[in-house]
Design brief:
It comes from Pseudomonas maumuensis. This protein has about 130 residues and is mainly alpha-helical. The chain is about 60% helix and about 0% strand. Helix 1 crosses helix 2 and helix 4 runs parallel beside helix 5. The radius of gyration is 30 Å and the shape is elongated.
Amino acid sequence: MPRGDKDKYTEKQKRKAEHIEQSYEHKGLSKDEAESRAWATVNKQSGGGDKAGGSGSKTSSSEKKTARSDSAKRAAKTRQGHARESGASLETQTKESLMKEARSKDIKGRSSMTKAQLVEALRKKG
């Protein structure tokens, strides 16, 4: 029998190892080799024994829902562009960044504008 106590494995892990072991024995491996390979497979797939649930099992579903909602709100805020007190920093932005801001402010004709024209249109839009 392979080394190690199997008491810390879940019933599901034990059943899986037994099934894998039977499969190896059916292919002609010795009982010891089949058992050894079966437990190695279970360990590789599940990370060993004494696992409660899985990753994130300590996080309640309401906490997960709140975290997802907060994440979505942050993402939406990022897509809107940033509030600006003065137009002075417009020149330092890339054309792509100006284009994104013009899109969020629904400035017409922005796709054919130059960087200078985008800066001017954004200043007018406020």
